[in-house]
Specification:
There is one protein chain. The chain has a domain of 140 residues: Phosphoglycerate mutase-like (Rossmann fold). Helix content is 36%, strand content 17%. It has seven helices and six strands. A hairpin with a 2-residue loop joins strand 5 and strand 6. The longest helix is centred in the middle third of the chain and has 15 residues.
Length: 206
């Protein structure tokens, strides 16, 4: 299976430094530019199916790509962003002031600590892994429009990489990550930032 992972466009929450996962925010001006540009830029990629997180910031872009490609978008709840429970929608500065113990525990052990009403990194990895296990040995290629945390988890799963090392990769809005997976082995082929998806970065898409 050839995987193309695409992170959603920049949102107001990204711009404001807010903690958010399941809560949705509108695109920024740059995010709207990304939303308008990416369907055309994804024309050079060939894929058999499009999967998307059900969250609006990802699903809206997936639908635009699907419309341009003449393809159906399959909504998949297991590839949505990590839920941050009671900390959804507040800034990191405010979180440190209002929930100092929660912030300390969350960023000290994101793997196991759950924010009240939310998830931890292990929860995200398990649901992402469940989805990927169903399709990773199939032939063909897929586009998965999703979120940074989910992309980190997918890379960990497909590349057989310890989850505590997945943070070495920075995944910005509208970055395209390609991973080829065959016979139980994944290979990271490329990580293309938005600025280079316009064709300045030459990548083998065969």
């Amino acid at each position: 299976m050839k995987f193309y992972f695409l992170r959603h466009p920049e949102t107001v929450a990204n711009e404001r430094g807010l903690i958010y996962g399941w809560k949705d925010y509108d695109y920024t001006e740059k995010g709207r530019e990304m939303y308008e540009a990416m369907p055309e830029r994804m024309e050079k990629y060939s894929f058999d199916k499009i999967y998307s997180s059900p969250l609006g910031r990802a699903h809206k872009l997936a639908e635009a790509i699907g419309q341009r490609k003449g393809m159906e978008v399959i909504s998949e709840d297991r590839i949505k962003e990590m839920g941050f429970g009671e900390m959804e929608g507040i800034s990191y500065i405010e979180a440190r002031e209002k929930y100092p113990d929660v912030v300390k525990n969350l960023f000290g052990d994101m793997e196991n600590f759950r924010v009240p009403g939310g998830e931890n990194a292990k929860d995200v990895a398990e649901r992402a892994g469940s989805f990927l296990d169903e399709i990773k040995e199939e032939d063909g290629s897929v586009l998965i429009v999703t979120h940074a945390m989910l992309m980190h988890s997918a890379m960990s799963c497909l590349l057989n990489m310890p989850r505590n090392e997945m943070w070495h990769f920075k995944i910005d809005p509208c970055m395209v990550v390609r991973i080829d997976y065959k016979d139980g082995y994944g290979v990271l082929k490329s990580m293309i930032p938005y600025e280079e998806t316009d064709g300045t970065y030459i990548v083998d898409v065969k």
